[in-house]
Each structure stands twice: as C-alpha cells, then as structure tokens.
Amino acid sequence: MFDARELSSPVEAIRDEHAPDVQILDCERDFETLDPARAEDLGLVVDALEPASYPSAWLPADAPTLLERYASPDLTIGMPGDGSIVWTRQTEPPIVLVKPRVEGSPEEFVDFLLAEALVELDLDVPEHFIGFFEDEYPELDRAVDLDPTGTYQVAAALYDGWIGLQTRAVFADWHDDHPELADAWQDAGTRLEDRVSGLPRAVARGETEFADATELACASIKHAIELPAPFAALDTEAYRDHGPEYAIRWAEKTFDSLAK
Q1: 2 — phi, psi (to 5°)?
Q2: CB-CB contact of 25 with 93 (8 Å)
Q3: What is the pTM of this model?
Q4: β-strand partners of 88
Q5: Cβ pair 157, 221 in contact under 8 A
C-alpha cells in the first residue's frame, strides 16, 4: 500500500531545509480519506501512530460525518479537499502521502506540490481547518449560508488561503536556490489567473457555485496573483495575523452582501 518515493534533487533539497525527518510515500490506491485498516497499516512503516482528536463542541450539530470522524480519537488521514498530496503529523515521524492521481501531471508540478507539503509541515500549522477554527467553527457555520458540505468546502478553502499567505513568501525566495521549483510555482499561478479574474461573473451567472469559487480563489493566494472582490479581502496581512476571527468576519460580510 505504501512505498518510499524516489525524490528529485530539488525536492530532496527542500526536505533537507524544512523537514529532514519526514517520510514521503507513494500510495497504491487513490483516496479521499484512508479507511481505518489502511491507515493502521502505516504503523508498519513509521515508528508510532498518534491520532489527533478535537472536542465535539467544536462541531455544529449538522457537521458532515467525515468531520465528526476526524475530530474523534480515530486515526483519520486525508479529508475531502486535500488534493493529490497529503501530509500528516499523526505519525512519528511525519509523512507525506502521494496519491496515484498525480500520474500524468508534469514532473515539475508534482515536485512543487511535494515541496509545498514540506514547507507547510515546517510551518507547524494544523493539518486540518478544525484545528485552525477550533471552538469558533460553529460561528463560521452560522455565518456561511450554505448546506454542511458547502460550509465545509468554504472552511477548508479559507484555511488553505491562510496557509498560502505564509508559504508564498518561501516560494518567492526559490528563484535563486531552487529555480525549477520557482518556475513551477509561477507557471501554476499564471494558469490560474484568467479563471480567478472571471470568478465574480461566473458566480453571478450561476455558472460557478460560491463554495467552488472560494476554493479556487483561496488556492490561488499562495501563487501571489491578484484576486477579485470579495476574495481580495483575504489576500491581506490582516488575515494572516488574525486568522479565524478575520475569516469569520469576512464570511459574515460576504454572505450578508450576497443575500441583498
């Protein structure tokens, strides 16, 4: 199920700089969330398993089942919205898991995704938005006028954007020491620019759901491209500094505006 991944020299260099103890493993099968048996199989390749858990009071009554499971003491690795590469500190040492879905993607882009995961591990941030919002998540749930799945998607996007405000400063310094990774980072941002600039029109016409638009806009923050309103308000030092409180105020103002 899990095999050590052979790394390119740029990714090896990033691991040495940011997370030298991390294991990077290829997964045999794709997943959103590893089923419990396969998650426990990680015990064969790491020294210890340390499941994360959070108070049930942090979850709204209608929270998705998977979020309840993640908050429980069960070992839960991988959640919807995590993408092709997942990292976790619920193992000792920490691990990065690469899903088979990356096959066919440009090698340079996969290297960037791996390097990004290593940089995020070095930030010592929570690995899921519930550890970011903590007991304020029900407040976000009240502010977001969507069903539980849509609220989950917006919360995950907001957290992704907050991390991106921190990682992009690291990525911007790669041009001298890691030019291949810097080029991949810039190229990915360039490919997003037209899609992001058209988000307000797409939402207004009903072509894109607001949760999907939030996900794309927040994923673009790490690429330092210009965001349209209302997402531009998330590309600020105030959001980086004030985190969940700022995200909740943004959601309140944004959904109030959408309702008018």
Answers
A1: -130, 130
A2: no
A3: 0.96
A4: 95
A5: no
179 upstream amide cis, omega within 30 of 0: no
Asked whether residue 159 falls in the same domain as residue 116, the answer is no
Distance CA 103, CA 235 (A): 32
Tokens representing 188? 């990915």
Query: Domain range spanning residue 253?
Result: 132-260
> How far apart are alpha carbons 112 and 103 in whole angstroms?
14
pLDDT of the residue at 37: 86
3-state SS assignment for residue 185 = helix
The Cα–Cα gap between 9 and 6 comes to 10
The pLDDT tens digits of the residues spanning 28-62 come to 999 999 988 889 899 999 999 999 999 999 999 99
Which two structure tokens, joined as six digits, stand for 219? Answer: 């994923």
What DSSP designation does 32 have? Answer: S
pLDDT digits (tens, 9 = 90+) for 187-238: 999 999 999 999 999 999 999 999 999 999 999 999 999 999 999 999 999 9
**Residue 64 token pair:** 């998705």
Together in a domain, 78 and 114? yes
DSSP-derived 3-state class of residue 214: helix
pLDDT computed for residue 259 by the predictor: 77
